[in-house]
Amino acid sequence: MAQRKRKKRSRQPLDERHYLAIELLTTVPTPNLDDIARACTVDRRTLYRWRLRKDFAKELRKVQERKTRELNQRLRRRFEIRTVADIEWFASKGGFDFD
User: Fold this and answer.
1) Threshold 0.90, pTM exceeds
2) What pLDDT digit, counting tens, does each position of 45-61 carry?
């Protein structure tokens, strides 16, 4: 008996609710999934299914990488050592004492 090929259902593209969920999933600290689902006006199980979608996961990964890159750039600028006073400040915060 030959098996029938299943037709794939076409998925709707990501909409504003998906992007809101992605933004909330990448905030620090991350709200719990119930709060995210409520903000997106979907059920928690729907949010779980969205996270299994390849296009959603790809977009989530892109946003996480972008936010990580931006954070790293901000931290590098913030902790850039320019003067001797900066070195002394870092040393004092790290528990080093030069006296």
Assistant:
1) no
2) 999 999 999 999 999 99
